[in-house]
Amino acid sequence: MQDQGLVSLESRFSVGETIDRLAAAAERSGLRIFARIDHGRGAAEVGADLRPTELLLFGHPRGGTPLMLDRQTSGIDLPVKALAWEDDQGRVWLSYNGAAWIAERHRLGRQSAFAVAAMADGLAKLAAAATSEDPSPTIP
Prior knowledge:
Blueprint: E1 2-3, E2 6-11, H1 15-28, E3 32-38, H2 39-45, E4 53-59, H3 61-70, E5 80-86, E6 92-97, H4 99-105, H5 113-131
Helix pairs in contact: 1-5, 3-5, 4-5
């Protein structure tokens, strides 16, 4: 499912396990994990009850640098982020900004087309590994 550049896939796993699986798949692919943020824990600190919600920031300079060389403003959307969250029905979702949306948002030129396509393919494979039974994506 895609809505205004936001790609969302339903996960067969809990929020925590979805993020664990995403992080493991990203690391197996040579990507760096920059941060993991538990928004539910943050909400609890201020006395609020938020359904499970975790964010993972990950990437690699080989993927993001070409986009920033084209338009430095693309750095606001890099490294990439993925959010695992539980809806009010108890279903778990993994959402991330689509690479094409990032390219459109920053008006990236043709010189970025290969990097954008590789990012889109890599994100789709990582998301599938995090949300389905196949834990090992093949990412170039």
